[in-house]
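Case study.
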Amino acid sequence: MSVLEVENLEVYYETEEGPVQAVDDVSFSLEEGENLGIVGESGCGKTTLAKAIIGILPDAGYVNRGQIRFDGDDLTEMTDAQRRRLKWEEISMIAQSAMNSLDPVYTIREQITEAIEAHRPGTGRVESTEIVTEMFELVGLDPDRADDYPHQFSGGMRQRAMIAMALALEPSLVLADEPTTALDVIMQDQILKRVNRIQEEINSSMLVITHDVSVVAETCDRVLVMYAGKVAEEGPVEEIFNQPYHPYTIGLKRAFPNIRMPDQDLLSIRGYPPELVDPPEGCRFAERCPMATNRCYEEEPEAHHINGLRSYCHYADKIDEELRPRADDAETWKQTEAARAQTQTQQPGMGDD
Amino acid sequence: MGKASFVIRRILQLGVTFWAVGTVLFFMFRLMPGDPTSFIISPQMTPEAREQVIASYGLDEPLYVQYVKFLQNALTLDFGQSFQAKAPVQEVIMTYLPNTLVLMLTAFAIAYFFGITLGVLSGWYRGSRFERSTVITALVARSVPSFWVGLMVLWVFGAGFGVIPMSGMSGLGSDTQSFWQMVFSVDFLRHLAAPALVLAYYFMGYPLLIMRSSMLEVLSEDFVDVCRAKGLKERTIMFRHAARNALLPIVTAAAIALGYAVGGSVLIETVFAWPGIGREMVRAVLRRDFPVAQGTFMVLAATIIILNFVADLVYGYLDPRVTYD
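After joint prediction, the assembly is written out as follows.
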């Protein structure tokens, strides 16, 4: 059964220029014990999506339409008190930049105990001490250091303390927002492995939000690629990374170093994502897409199901013969509207700097 | 390095600061124009009698001898004899200082209690009408001179409605044995209310604005999101986490402000004819009463210096990140 089903979700931010459509018509589901990665560049709406699911959108943000069903119940219909009961007990999070995610003026133990007490009032000191000790051992921290303040911990330790806190109540869903961005690769690897192990133990699902494709590859079963507030493509990790069916995913893949082809030049996708106050009609990636046609600028793409993937590209079934053979060529990525616009604005300025 | 050695080092610094303040005070009054003896010596005196009076205050000795004596005596909190009151300066200070402290501490407690609370709320409810009105109130409170507000209050409530006494600390015929008995008498509280509230209104703007901006800063930090995700109650997040963190800059600000409050008591004490140390200091300066002026200045400076020291210690307790290296 699905732990989480997000359906046609729209999350907007109120601004002076009008609502920013940060998440637009996003649908996906997450099965029990499954890990789903959400990737995309900064500002694509992935963090907003996570905040909407756990229910901590800032004041200006609101769910405009759609459903977030957790265990079958729609979270958007719930009262604040009902949602508060689900938080951390059922849905917890490992925050973005976990370095600053702990309150500096309380000890780690106080902060974990606070979460336990908030949801299970009457839990005795003995029992919460047991939980803290157990969680500290699980994440590989010395339980004797639980009475330290966050600043007495190193970055990696703080991250692990954050994870210990996130998993202390054995939630069925964990949202990990850039869980390891602040850490070095070795620490990252250690921590991800540990999280996966604990997760299997308590059988929780996880939503991993990141711009780091390697994190997804290591931890997730499926991936959802977001672009400018919308789903670009979704499917099993293997398929998405081996044979994607959306030009954005293909471009993204080429923008990451490939360990098997060390000599390969990295290609960037020219241009920037569109403004989401007044998003363009049609496909949002059109301007930066080497395959774009008039249809792409006019008509919003529907989901195409190919090879177990869900791709929102009009020409998903033509990717194999059209784009894939040319994708490794830098010239291909210069044939976009955005690239042309960039070279045009650059020319008069040349020699100035 | 540990906390103990930090405290010791800080105490040594205190000593140096006090010496510097004392030195400045001593020479400042000697460099001031005007002869102090003109007030205590009448023209009818014979030259011998005049010299005798001057010698009795030690004013005939060379300046450096006076200076060393001044410092020696200051160590024992002895600031000499008042030229005017013919009494030890210590006694003068002890008569007026408690009056100032009662007024200032009352006003300060009211101001910081309401200022901090309103600051927390206005930071939390950013963009609301409540926030706008508290910020405007705070700015008005900070910009309107307290003596003017004091005069208006006296005019409207004292002269107009007659609900508050016009001056002083106690009414005619009030008869109390001890200081504390006086402080807790209804008559005294009636006198205290107006100046204390006027001052509290004036002081309140500062903690309110600092607390509000400090709250805004804290609320943008990631741990607040985590607190919300933990499913804590809104009030718990607001006070236990956000306000607790936002309070840190207030502590230093408050300690320093309290020092200035005691020091800056002159205006309000004058308006309400409150027999405090600020008013006494001004009178001493006008009469060239060096010892009293030095003594009262020293007390006000000491208040600021010591409260700074206290702020440092309290800060270390409130913020576990503070190290003593």
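Observations recorded in class. Chain A touches chain B at residues 51, 54-56, 59, 83-89, 92-93, 95-98, 100-105, 114-115, 118-119, 149, 151, 162 (CB under 8 Å). Residues 37 and 208 of chain A are 5 Å apart (CA to CA). We will return to this complex in the next lecture.
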